[in-house]
């Protein structure tokens, strides 16, 4: 069975060597050396500040918690995202208000955001969908005009650069996921990125039960600490992630070459200066075709993924978001990872073409 993704992993002996130290130091978590080093490396790489946490969902919860929004507040969010984005809003006791997406970029539409603003709106939570940067300037203008915070779900954005800057630098806060299925991973993991030192310091306290550096409790925190085994995995993956992205680029381009205009694609931002090839999303003409392709590929031992599906407005609200519903019902992610062999890329494309036929 070929899966939709395959986690990259460092050389086993290197990992063994790295974690051996932990049997001597017995410092397994709580701001260990590896965690501190990983935070430093990521801050340098992306030219912003960073707090690493145990998963991306906790990073979202902490990001929302930073602002102490009043009870009953509304947060404008895209319906075309992974469940965690919206669930974080609901867990925090706020109301998600959905703004539909642009059908070409798959990102939240700035015009739709403006239409959803009420006197209860406190924040916008856009997602850079599949690593495609949102229109960050327009979103920032709306936020400033209406005095809203911007929390980006940048779960897919490791190494995504927009006009030469990491997309993690935009908004008040960006949240990353380092889950095993993402381009760069720490098995489970996530991070909060921001250029705002005050927010970063607060996130650091919230990660560790609200303790400040003098071990006084100054916030209502939680436990979102990453352990040293995972940080060690992250440090070693950091050494091989550039190569992994290069290899993914080849696979991505091969698919595009073989599929041509048999399927539609996400329109990537023209201002992207580096992309990470995290996924291989393709769009079919209708849901039935998408589902046929899904089943037929599965029958041939290829696992694909309907992602994001369903459109979350249909689960968490009674709003309608036609663009998001349409893309959700027609999208499929093909297997993509660095070491995927040509033979499999070719097989997948042959099966798709057989079902779709030439356009
Ligand atoms: C993966 C993902 C998350 C959640 O991250 P975890 O690390 O799995 O908790 C949140 N949002 C989006 C868009 C994701 O793809």
Automatic annotation (TrEMBL):
Record-level GO BP terms: polysaccharide biosynthetic process
Residues forming the catalytic site: 182
Signal peptide annotation: none
Annotated InterPro entries: DegT/StrS_aminotransferase, PyrdxlP-dep_Trfase, PyrdxlP-dep_Trfase_major
Identification of the protein by name: DegT/DnrJ/EryC1/StrS family aminotransferase
The species this protein was found in: Fervidobacterium changbaicum
Residues where N6-(pyridoxal phosphate)lysine is found: 182
Keyword annotations from UniProtKB, A to Z: Aminotransferase, Pyridoxal phosphate, Transferase
Keyword Transferase attributed: yes
Family: Belongs to the DegT/DnrJ/EryC1 family.
Gene3D superfamilies recorded: Type I PLP-dependent aspartate aminotransferase-like (Major domain)
GO molecular function terms listed in the Swiss-Prot or TrEMBL record: pyridoxal phosphate binding; transaminase activity
